[in-house]
Amino acid sequence: MTPMLFVRLWVMVFLHYFVWGAWYVTMGTYLTKTLEFRGEQVGLAYGSTAVGALLSPFIVGIVADRFFATQRILAVLHLVGAALLYYVSTLHDFGHFYPALLAYTVTYMAGHGLTNSLTLQHCKNPATDFPRVMVMASVGWIAAGLVVSQLQLENSAGMFQLASGAALIMGLYSLTLPHTPPKGANTPVSLGTLLGFDALRLLRDRSFATFMICSFLICVPLSFYFTWMNAFMNELNIPNAAAKMTLGQVSDVIFLLLLPLLLPRLGVKGVLLVGIGAWALRFGLFAAFSSNPASLWMLFVGICLHGMCYDFVFVMGRMYVDKRAGDDVRSAAQGLHALVTLGAGMFVGSWLSGVVGQAYTHGETHSWQQIWLIPAAMSAVLVVVFALLFHEQRAASQTESQ
Predict the structure, then answer these.
(1) Rounded Cα gap, residues 10 and 358, in angstroms
(2) Burial class (CB in 10 A: 0-12, 13-18, 19+), 2
(3) DSSP code of 365?
(4) From CA 79, how far away is CA 69, in angstroms rounded?
(5) Pick from 74, 96, 208, 256: most CB atoms within 10 A?
(6) Helix-strand-coil percent breakdown of the chain, rounded to 5?
């Protein structure tokens, strides 16, 4: 990959993730404090990205892959998204806000897959080039959090307007990206292929089934973090909460770089267990901190565990799926993993986090210790289940025999 192409893809990834980071982290504070939505409504709003992830394969697999160049459909998606985001910023009742946000997330999550496919098509060595390009995802997320804090948009519709402006820039910039013609023209398509159902036979292996079930369930703690973390920090009057939360993305970069070094020593099972255990530790720290505000270190340690929580579970998970699946179902297996996690897992997790948050809402305050103990306990149980039922050696041996 030439340096110029590398920079062009860098800018694309930065802008794409800046758009998401500008509203997703702080939306919970805006919805609860400014629009005064109920907890269940906040959970549904955060679950909109999961619905987008469920529907986006049809856009990517049927339309983008067969009829239009990737960079052009990416431009259209972000330009439409910019208009929808601005419209969302003008809405104040849930009945209008939620459908508009839902429509937007379908466009964004479709673009999410297209940025990956465009990058991979132009990488001469995907194993080394792709991670280097994707580092800018964390940088874009960090930059968005810093700008939101600097402009004091955490409880303002201005977060959506900022994201709208960034989406407009991204849409126009996409038209300058390298030409990437559709790869799937004149090829057959099936619902099973699009959603990864062709890989269901892998679930006959107990270890793979355990991995998929645990991947689905760990999305519930992940949803608790995204739904309530910013509101939690703002309710405790911690200044510049969005900026402080970007420490999680800094750790994301660090642990992403550490993952190749730790994998040979810990193995797949060890890395996944550490990742799931990090979720239990993180929420345990948040629960302890919410009842003892003097222990500020607990909050920041919990935030800085984000890289271990995310990379060691979800990035490692994608690598495990790639290794476990054969060539004939590798794409289908990745589609199934995305459907289970980004789709079903995040939707159920976002809804449940909203229900729990509402149950422990008292006027304008929350019982944060009780809220955080639920994902902490769930993560701790998953550690035990995964340790007992997942056997890496068995999975590896079956892969070799297929």
Answers:
(1) 40
(2) exposed
(3) E
(4) 16
(5) 74
(6) 80, 0, 20
Cα 123 from chain centroid?
23
- DSSP state string for 156-209: STHHHHHHHHHHHHHHHHHTTSPP---S-TT----HHHHHTGGGGGGGGSHHHH
Closest CA to 91 of 30, 177, 18: 30
pLDDT at 326 over 60: yes
Tell me which of 123 and 383 has the higher pLDDT: 383
The number of beta carbons lying within 10 Å of the beta carbon of residue 134 is 18
User: What is the DSSP-derived secondary structure letter of residue 66?
Assistant: T
Rounded-to-integer distance, Cα 291 and Cα 208, Å: 39
Tell me the C-alpha distance between 276 and 217, whole Å.
10
Residue whose C-alpha is closest to residue 227's, from 394, 26, 390, 89: 26
Question: How confident is the model over 262-278, as a mean pLDDT?
Answer: 93
CB 107, CB 169: distance < 8 Å: no
Amino acid 332: pLDDT: 66
Q: Find tokens 């466009």 and name the residue.
A: 107
Q: How far apart (Å, rounded) are the C-alpha atoms in residues 384 and 402?
A: 29
Dist CA 26 CA 8 (whole Å): 29
User: Do 216 and 344 contact (CB within 8 A), yes or no?
Assistant: yes
CA–CA separation, 23 and 97 (whole Å): 14
Q: Provide the CA 103 distance to its chain's centre, in angstroms.
A: 18
Provide the terminal-to-terminal Cα distance of the chain, rounded to the nearest Å: 34
**Cα-atom radius of gyration of the chain, to the nearest Å?**
20
DSSP category for residue 153: -
* Tokens linked to 171: 């849409």
- Single-letter code of the amino acid located at 263: L
Burial of 353 (0-12, 13-18, 19+ CB in 10 A): buried
Token pair of 102, please? 């839902």
Q: What's the chain's average pLDDT?
A: 86
Cβ-Cβ contacts under 8 Å for 401 (sequence gap 6 or more): none
What percentage of the chain carries pLDDT values higher than 70?
A: 88
Give me the domains of the chain, ranges plus CATH numbers: 1-189 (1.20.1250.20), 197-402 (1.20.1250.20)
Q: Is 162 exposed, middle or buried (0-12, 13-18, 19+ CB in 10 A)?
A: buried
